[in-house]
Amino acid sequence: MAEPIRILLQTTIASTEDDWSIARFSLLRDYIQSINDDAGNSLFAVTARDRLSDNQGNDPILGTLDQSDFDELWLFALDTGDGLTEKDIAGINAFRKRGGGILTTRDHQDMGCSMCSLIDIGDVHYFNTKNPDPDDSRWSRDDPHTTYISWPNYHSGANGDYQKIIPVEPIHELLKNPNSTSGLIDFFPAHPHEGGIGVTPNQTNARVIALGKSLVTGRQFNLVVAIDHYTDAQGDRLGRAIATSSFHHFVDYNWDITKGCPSFVDEVPGNTMTKEPRALEDIKTYVRNVALWLAE
C-alpha cells in the first residue's frame, strides 16, 4: 500500500477562539481525511495547526518545512503582515524548491500580505499596500456594505451562499467534476469581500483558471490562479502552487453557517450552500482535485 500524501493545514495566526483559527477549518480537515482510494485506503494524512512562535519568533514547523515529511502545505494567510518571519518564508520557499505543493489563500485588503516574499505566490496575490493589482482601475472598493474594509474586496455574495464560478478556457483539470451534469465544478462558497489575485505576462507557468463575478458591480474578478511545475535557474524543479482569492472558500462557516463565526463578523449570512446540494459537492470535489494535483 502506498503511503498517504501528507498535508499540513496551517494558519498564520496564533490559536484564538474568537478568530478564524484552524479549529474553524474542521469540515475541510475531516473531508480530506475521509478520502480513500478504490481499495478503501486513506489517500491523505492531515495535520492542522495554527502558528506557533519559538524564542526567536519563528514557527518551528514552517521555518524547517523543507526538512519535514510533508508533501503539501495549505497556507491560510489570515494576518495583515506579521504572519510569516524571514525564516518561515525561507523554509516554505525551500519546501517548494524540493517539490512540495502549496495552496495559498487570504482575503480582502492586506490580509495575508506576509506572503509577498514567497516564490511566485507573492507575485500573484494583490494587496492594498503591497504588490497592488497592476490594473489601477481596480484600486477601488467593490463591496460597499462593510465600509471599514478597503480594496481589494470583491462581493461575490453573502457568507453561507454559493457563487456561480466562471471557468477560463482551456478548462483546467482542477475544475472538472465527472459527477456533475456539466462535467465541471460550477459552485464555490461566496463571500462579501474576496481578495485580489492575478497573473502578469512574464509569469509563463501560471494562469487564471476561474473567475468570480461581483453581485454589486457586475465586475469579474480572478478566483483561482494555478502555477505549474518548472525548473528554476538553480536546477530545482519547483512544486505546483495554487492561489485563491479567499479562505472563506474553505472555512466551516461558509460550508455550513450553523458552525458559527467570530464575533466581529457582522454581515447577514445566507443559506444557499445548504439548500443546493451540488454546491457543497462541488467545493469538496475541488478540494479533492487540489489535494491530488499538488502532489503530482
Can you describe this structure?
With about 300 residues, the chain is an alpha/beta fold. Helix content is about 20%, strand content about 20%. It has six helices and 14 strands. The strands form four sheets. The chain has an eight-stranded mixed sheet, sandwiched between helices. Strands 5-9 form a two-stranded antiparallel sheet. Strand 12 and strand 13 form a beta hairpin. The longest helix has 19 residues, at about 275-295. The mean pLDDT is about 95.
Shape: globular
Report the radius of gyration as a whole number of Å. 18 Å
- End-to-end Cα distance, whole Å, is 18 Å
Bin the strand percentage: 15-25%
Trace the largest sheet across and list its strands: 2-1-3-4-14-11-10-7
Number of strands: 14
What is the count of DSSP helices, taking H or I runs of 4+ residues? 6
What does the largest sheet look like? Answer: 8 strands, mixed
Question: Average pLDDT value?
Answer: 97
Helix/strand structural class: alpha/beta
Low-confidence stretches: none
